[in-house]
Amino acid sequence: MAEKPTTEFWRDLKPIANVFKADAKKETYIGNAPTDDERYYVPFSETVSSRPLWISPSQNKWADILMAKSAGLVNRHYHPHEVFAYTISGKWGYLEHDWTATAGDFIYETPGEGHTLVAYEHEEPMRTFFVVKGPLIWLDEDGNADGYFDVHDYIKLCKEHYEKVGIGADYVESLFR
């Protein structure tokens, strides 16, 4: 239950009795999503990690916080579907674009956009909230497809990491919706 109101004008409103439809799944609530507890960040590359927050295996979609504690790199890739990003802290960008994102910046990536994600040295770690749909298509240095990474690869990577750090592989399934 939400915190009890005190002086708010709506304090006497009663909550809805039947919140969820019969087939609806419970919402996901994760307090302190960009936690400093590094066990929750799954190594995505040698320099960048991902904290899964929500995963939809049936839609090939996930939401995460990407983190780099210092200069970082996610190899060249493109997305056949749109991607949304919101920068929480630090500094990052794509080698192929003329902007650099810092805290508070929002980015919409169009389907079919290829790029090389880089995190810059900064006094705060780069932490960015992403919503990713569909696979990442890995690209070689010439921009040609060279493999892929989809939600099923992400789930496997997360399960292996969480088992290794003592959180347990089953934790990942608690994020499925």
Write the layout of secondary structure elements.
Layout: E1 42-43, E2 49-56, E3 61-68, E4 72-79, E5 83-89, E6 91-94, E7 100-102, E8 106-109, E9 113-119, E10 126-133, E11 136-139, E12 145-149, H1 151-164, H2 170-173
Structure description:
- Helix content is 10%, strand content 38%.
- It has 177 residues and is mainly beta.
- The protein contains two helices and twelve strands, in the order E-E-E-E-E-E-E-E-E-E-E-E-H-H.
- The strands form two sheets. The chain has a six-stranded antiparallel β-sheet with strand order 1-2-3-10-5-8, with helices on one face. A six-stranded antiparallel β-sheet has the order 7-6-9-4-11-12.
- The longest helix is centred in the last third of the chain and has 14 residues, at 151-164.
- The protein has helices at 151-164, 170-173, and strands spanning 42-43, 49-56, 61-68, 72-79, 83-89, 91-94, 100-102, 106-109, 113-119, 126-133, 136-139, 145-149.
